[in-house]
Each structure stands twice: as C-alpha cells, then as structure tokens.
Design goal:
Order of helices and strands: HEEEEEEEEEEEEE
Distance between the termini: 77 Å
Structural class: mainly beta
Helix content: 10-25%
Strand content: 35-45%
Radius of gyration: 20 Å
Oligomer: single chain
C-alpha cells in the first residue's frame, strides 16, 4: 500500500513539475506557458523615447499585429511631450505615480495622478502626454497591433 502511494506521489510530482511554467528570458512567447520574475526584466533604450526612458518587452513581439506587454520606466522629472499611439492600450501602474494628461499641448494643469495598481485605458490615436513629476514610475502597457508613437509638433 505504501509503495502504491509513493508511486502516485512521484508521478503527481513529475506531472506538476512538467506543467509548471518555465521561467525564462524575455520576451515570453504567446501560446506557451511561461513566467518572468521582476528581477529578470531587461530594460533597453527605445529609439522613439528620450535616452533616459527605458522599455522592456515582456510578452509577445510589439512589432507584430498580435498582443504584447511592455513596461516603461520613466525617471524623475522626465516629460513625454504630446503624442499618439496607433494601437489601443491598457496601462497598469507598477510603481511610482503615473501622471497623464490629454490634449495636443503639454499642460501641467491637465495631468491626473495614478498610483500603483491603477489602470488607464487609452484608445488609439488619443493625444496625451506624461510627466514623472513626483519621481520615477514604471507602467505596464498591454496592446494589440504594432507598438507605435507619433509626436505632435
């Protein structure tokens, strides 16, 4: 009886380990189970952003017409001037305070502060701007379709 229980426990453990998500380098592909620990996020410069702003691709390929998840790290006092994105976006604030305002002209009076855990839905082609006015923030962006940014002159 004990041998039978031991065999069942071993098989159950093997199956559980085989089904567990593998922790890997990013970005995680769509269609597979996967996981990424926060300490393994790889931050890189993104050509459309000022040099001090970093982007990390977590899931998918943001250059394709498919779902993706990226994170954006913006250092203290950095401003992103008015711009639009060609894709619908859902922002989740990971850390810090995310200030976003809407319109074609940067106007500090229009900024709204969103703390960690807040979610902001941004329809495609909505003019907006950001300011890390109270310290560094990290936001996570979910989108579908190629990631894009167009600054408003």
């Amino acid at each position: 009886m004990n041998q039978k229980i031991f065999k069942i426990a071993c098989v159950s453990t093997f199956l559980a380990c085989a089904a567990a998500p593998s922790v890997q380098a990013q970005p995680l592909p769509l269609g597979n189970i996967g996981a990424l620990f926060n300490e393994n996020v790889e931050w890189k410069s993104f050509p459309a952003f000022p040099q001090e702003i970093k982007l990390a691709v977590l899931v998918g390929d943001p250059s394709q017409s498919a779902p993706y998840v990226v994170r954006v790290k913006v250092p203290n006092n950095t401003k992103l001037m008015p711009h639009t994105h060609p894709e619908d976006r859902i922002y989740t604030v990971i850390s810090g305070v995310f200030y976003i305002g809407f319109g074609n002209v940067f106007d500090p009076a229009k900024l709204v502060a969103y703390g960690p855990g807040s979610v902001v839905v941004l329809p495609r082609n909505t003019p907006h701007f950001h300011w890390a006015k109270s310290g560094e923030y990290v936001s996570q962006v979910y989108g579908v379709d190629p990631l894009g940014i167009k600054y408003i002159d």
